[in-house]
Design brief:
With about 180 residues, the protein is α+β, with helices and mostly antiparallel strands. The protein is built from 6 helices and 5 strands. The protein folds into 2 domains: about 45 residues; about 140 residues, Beta-Lactamase (2-Layer Sandwich), CATH 3.30.450. A 5-stranded antiparallel beta sheet has the order 2-1-5-4-3, sandwiched between helices.
Length: about 180
């Protein structure tokens, strides 16, 4: 009201009827409330992390998994094999060189991202835009932190698993990108 003081004074000087002045105010109020409500709803729309998985693309072996909830997801090898099989099926059945990038099941969505010799799978509920953004951020920073995934490859060749140093990096990234953002 105070921000439009000049307009109100002009309406008084023009002898604008009171009903017309009130109509203008109610329309403006309703419009601003509608816009503000939609903006607040948009801000709340995000993804809810469920599961993150790193798979060796060629072998389909699960290298890392993280459950964000106390769901009954206990066998990461089974999940890695399932996602690898779907990915391989997509390549074979559709004669494509890329990988399947999304799988939807009920309210869950799985985003798959192939980087170097690894396949990253992120299972979530909610909006895919924020989920894709988080997965991109995660893989980009992980690539930088591990010399374009070369350190991970060397660790797997030497130890048949990801080293403790790299696991620490992965866990810190997950905390920073997926978990802290979830609390906000």
């Amino acid at each position: 009201l105070l921000t439009h003081l000049d307009e109100w004074e002009e309406k008084i000087n023009q002898n604008t009827p009171l009903q017309e002045r009130l109509d203008d105010v109610s329309h403006e109020f309703l419009f601003s409330k509608m816009v503000r409500t939609n903006i607040e709803e948009l801000a709340e729309e995000t993804d809810i992390p469920v599961y993150l998985l790193i798979i060796q693309a060629e072998s389909g072996e699960g290298l890392y998994s993280k459950s964000f909830h106390n769901d009954n997801i206990e066998d990461s090898g089974l999940i890695a094999g399932f996602i690898s099989a779907i990915n391989l099926f997509g390549k074979e059945a559709f004669s494509s060189s890329g990988s399947i990038d999304r799988i939807k099941h009920g309210e869950h969505l799985i985003i798959l991202q192939s980087k170097d010799e690894f396949l990253f799978g992120y299972v979530f509920k909610g909006q895919s835009y924020t989920a894709i953004s988080k997965l991109n951020t995660f893989t980009d920073i992980l690539a930088i932190s591990t010399n374009n995934f070369k350190n991970i490859s060397v660790s797997i060749q030497n130890n048949n698993e990801i080293s403790e140093d790299i696991l620490s990096i992965i866990n810190q990234l997950i905390e920073r990108i997926f978990i802290i953002n979830k609390r906000l």
